[in-house]
Amino acid sequence: VMDWVKTVCLVLWAFTFNSVADDLKEQALKLMADTPLIDGHNDLPWQMRSLFNNQLNTVDLYKLNSTHTNIPKIKEGHLSAQFWAAYVPCDTQYKDAVRQTLEQIDVIHRMCHKYPEVFKFAASSQDILDAFEQNKTASLIGVEGGHSIDSSLGTLRTMYQLGVRYLTITHSCNTPWADNWLVDTGSEPEAHGGLSDFGKQVIREMNRIGMLIDLSHVSEKVMNQVLDISEAPVIFSHSSAYSICNHKRNVPDDVLMRVKEKKGIVMVNFYNDYVTCQTTANISDVADHFDHIKKVAGSSIIGFGGDYDGVSRVPDGLEDVSKYPNLVAELLRRKWSDEEIRDALGRNLLRVFREVEEVRDLLNGTKPDDIPIPLKEVQNPCRTDFVLIMTLLNKLL
Fold first, then answer.
1. What's the CA gap between 146 and 126, in Å, rounded?
2. Which of 21, 104, 219, 369 has the fewest beta carbons under 10 Å from its own?
3. Is 41 part of the annotated catalytic residue set?
4. What is the annotated signal peptide range for this record (predicted)?
């Protein structure tokens, strides 16, 4: 009799558990139907380069199954807007970083042109809402790594004209004007005490043109210096909470508080190593980061920054971009309110984007900064010194 009673209890428990889970998933999907899910960082364009040498004509994103991201997964995950990363590795610095980055910008545009029924290119906060109304995935560009502009404000402005809407100040290498996160681990020497004078120029020029400043990958000194300098809110496009996982790619509590004061956003990364500081993680571990950031600085600074297709390990339950509703359901299970969920899904990023655009509009009468980085700070065999060439020519003449 006791065995029979245990069996009935287990069946009832399983039925109740599954019923609750189904209800939460349904609620999650309803919220995602009226508020766009905006993800801060996806490296599918890098997969196009590394797997197919950017030969997009040979790829079918409806059928591609070797990546975290394809069109059926995007649809199942209700991914309404995506910042696609135009990323090239640090070893391109001082060589062909600009060319390779332009090729990544090009492949993002070509993705939108090849699949106009799925992707709508977006370069403003309003474009995201327009794409959502059309049931398309707004496709934005973020350049991942300051080495991609080759210490040139002209290149920064040109990339903005091509639709780039954020620049990650560093990747995993120092630039001639900013220190990266590895400085805080001791594995790389500090080069600039955070930002150099030219680095501060870059931040001000990004404010002027309306480009979002992304602090993922930078040193803690750079985080604080940018928060001091920037007139606009900042973003962390794919970083998590340092107090939950003590990895230097994550954001410390004191910086979380400053991001709140600046009305910025931290978009939570799903990479296992940044979630648990181990090789394994699950969906609950990711939700712990959301909970912690909300506890420290409120739900107004939280977003999603999966880092799909840029990482080798993702949590159980978040295997690819189709799984976003599972995480939303987990937050609902943890008693997040509908309004808090809507903020994290997309309203926070939209607010930040609008404020960046407002700062741009206020600075509309300000002239472009045309003071170059001092040559001695970037001198290398691949850089041409036109000033020196003209001086020599004038002497010859």
1. 27
2. 21
3. yes
4. 1-21
**DSSP assigned state of 201:** H
- What would the 3-class secondary structure string for 288-313 be? HHHHHHHHHHCHHHEEECCCECCCCC
Q: What is the pLDDT along the chain (397 residues), one digit of tens a residue?
A: 667 766 656 655 555 557 789 999 999 999 999 999 999 999 999 999 999 999 999 999 999 999 999 999 999 999 999 999 999 999 999 999 999 999 999 999 999 999 999 999 999 999 999 999 999 999 999 999 999 999 999 999 999 999 999 999 999 999 999 999 999 999 999 999 999 999 999 999 999 999 999 999 999 999 999 999 999 999 999 999 999 999 999 999 999 999 999 999 999 999 999 999 999 999 999 999 999 999 999 999 999 999 999 999 999 999 999 999 999 999 999 999 999 999 999 999 999 999 999 999 999 999 999 999 999 999 888 888 776 566 666 777 7
Mark whether 238 is an active-site residue. Answer: yes
Q: Is 144 a catalytic residue?
A: yes
Can 192 be counted among the known catalytic residues?
Answer: no
Q: How many CA atoms lie within 13 A of 4 on its CB side?
A: 1
What pTM did the predictor assign? 0.93
Crossing angle, helix 197-209 and helix 348-362, to 10 degrees?
Answer: 100
Question: Residue 177 in contact with residue 199, Cβ under 8 Å?
Answer: yes
d(CA 68, CA 318) in angstroms, rounded, equals: 10
Q: Say how far apart CA 55 and CA 44 lie, in whole Å.
A: 13
Domains of the chain: 1-396 (3.20.20.140)
Note if 43 is an active site residue: yes
Active site residue 109: no
For residue 295, how far is the Cα from the chain centroid?
22
